[in-house]
């Protein structure tokens, strides 16, 4: 049985594509892609639920590990892409957070909701 496993492993390792697909350089980033996918999907949600501290931490995390992915030998471009997408999504979330809480976005949203509620009340009351 051990000889069969050794033969299969030798066959896999002799093929460059299979060797890459069976490595942590492939499966690490693939399993890590859930984070940037969730971050991109969160850009469509209400900015009131964004955590500023968590977003800041994720920006630093993504920038650090994107650099790390290019510093290791061999360079891991798939991991770099994962962290670059996450960095971009987190910077977008950071902008949305600052716009909503610090730059008047919340007031504009509340005013728009108030105007919409007044318009609806006037239509139903008329």
Automatic annotation (TrEMBL):
Spell out the coiled coil positions from the record.
none
This protein's name: Mitochondrial pyruvate carrier
GO-annotated biological processes: pyruvate import into mitochondria
UniProt entry tagged with the keyword Nucleus: no
The UniProt entry's sequence similarity note says: Belongs to the mitochondrial pyruvate carrier (MPC) (TC 2.A.105) family.
Q: Where in the cell is it found?
A: Mitochondrion inner membrane
Q: What organism, scientifically named, is this protein from?
A: Byssochlamys spectabilis (Paecilomyces variotii)
Alphabetical keyword list: Membrane, Mitochondrion, Mitochondrion inner membrane, Transmembrane, Transmembrane helix, Transport
Q: How does it sit in the membrane?
A: Multi-pass membrane protein
GO CC terms on record? mitochondrial inner membrane
Q: What is the role of this chain?
A: Mediates the uptake of pyruvate into mitochondria.
